[in-house]
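re: ur question from the group chat, yeah i did fold both. here u go
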Amino acid sequence: MRGTPPGSDAAGGPGVVLGLRQNLAQFLLLVAVNALVGGTLGQERTVLPLLASQVFNVGLYSSALTYILAFGVAKAATNYLAGTLSDRFGRKPVLVAGWLIALPVPLLLIFGDSWGWIVAANVILGISQGLTWSTTVMMKMDLVGPERRGLAMGLNEAAGYLGVAGTALATGYIAAMHGLRPGPFLLGAAFIAVGLGLSVLAVRETHHHAAAEAATHRPRDARHAGLGSREVFILTSFRDRSLSAVSQAGMVNNLNDGLAWGLFPVFFFAGGLSVDKVGLLAAAYPAVWGAAQLVTGALSDRYGRKPLITGGMLVQAAALAMVAAGTGFETWLAAAVLLGIGTAMVYPTLLAAIGDVAHPSWRARSIGVYRLWRDSGFAAGALLSGIVADALGIPAAIAVVAGLTAASGVVVAVRMRGADHR
């Protein structure tokens, strides 16, 4: 394994045991930490789109969505680095660094007096999220080993997106009662403080668990047992059928999530809904997404990754079309629930599929490459949906993204191998 961090044994060390039950306490702690990571992101989901239009008077959708573009570019690049840094220095130092970087974000969101400061806060938030979320994924994969990987990723992503949803709902009510600033962002500051404290004091290093798995792992192709970072990038992005199919699906998934984050609140508010109802809709989608992953991750262990990914992308496409064509709270709520179900089918399954194919010695780097592509979808979504919305309106932007999402599901059906999870 390239770069063994201090305190770990290249062979895994004595007493290292893989498995969810065997590492349950540490696993549950990491679930809690990732819920706080999600909550830190969730402080923005309801409030920032409304800040852009009501406080900073940002007229064009493409300009208003610059904060998502900045977040996506920063998070995507940091995801890629997180895998390499975690292999070199260990998972825990990278996790702690991510929390430290997040400390100024609530202050910038509260006191920023121009839209440029809000964009800058999202660059910092993207870097923080790239480090913290990536390492919690890697650490859970390290602990559980290959047998329950889908369940582990379902629990991880459920915690994160339930954190997003709960905070989006809470900040919507806080904003309705006390204004868009500072109240909603004080909640984010509390999450950062607690997350940093837990990560420093209670989280333990897991790199040696990955080393133990690598010592007994039999790769599908022996030539892929030891790869450099450039080779991992090419394999994950283009050469391996399953890894590349997963990478494009992740990118398109977050492209439509970037659309939902940036334009749904504005669309719903313009449709006559109050701020608290907009907050409820902004929370419903990640809440269903988060909760359903408790089931979908485990289902992918039993029935395979490919059916859930293909079906999930098609369900998302249908939900987006429903948002574009519908009117009124009830219709949009039903569409948000459907979008959450489709995303839950896809999200943990994509991560588990990477873990299935990648050798443990370069799995962290492959996850980093996948997350680079996946979170670049935020930037692509902000650009595409903003340009189309300015030219043709928000419903047209949603319809275009729905078409891309359906096409991505077809790519997975055609290109991805069907039994990599076995």
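okk and heres the other one u asked abt
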Amino acid sequence: MLLSVLIPAYNEINSIDTLLEKIQAVPINKEIIIVDDGSTDGTRERLKTFDAVPNIRVIFHDHNQGKGAAIRTAIQHMTGDIAIVQDADLEYEPQDYMALVKPIADGKEKVVYGSRFLNPENRHSYYSFYIGGQVVTLLTNALFNQRLTDEPTCYKVFDADFLRSIPLECTRFEFCPEVTAKVAKRGIRIKELPISYYPRSIAEGKKISWLDGIEAIWVLLKYRVMK
């Protein structure tokens, strides 16, 4: 089994080295697909130095297109059996990969999400982000007959062939609601497992905003009525 780690990266010079060290330390057969989405802070130049690492592949967007566009590019280049989305910051713990991929590797699930809310030891980000995430999750459950606790989580894990079969259109943070809606419309009940979470502040580089929450609601409603 080969795990494809899909990393959209934009201006993450302060975290990219540590993140890659953490991922490489996970005892699982993996390829790391990094898409630099037009970084301007030195991330782009730093990533060019990883060309010689056998299991790392870096793709460069000429200009910033958004997280969703970077993930779509990464999907085009992955060769693994299972795929996981990994943000380029340090909010999530790569050691959680082992538990998250197991239900898919065992053939029991097609999709697994890592839930920050199933781990009572986690602290959470800004209150507005917490409330926004809960609203998006509740709406997802109501519209798509799911039982999720954390729809906007970064750690979304897929059978790779299944992920390739989903026609994604996202460019920005709407990747999460779009892929969730399209998975649910295939009749799949998404499995959740607890993960660790270490939220960072806006000053530390957090990029999502309340406007992305509004967009997520719109995307969920749109794909509920679209065939």
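fwiw on the second one: DSSP finds eight helices and seven strands in the chain. The radius of gyration is 16 Å. idk if thats what u expected
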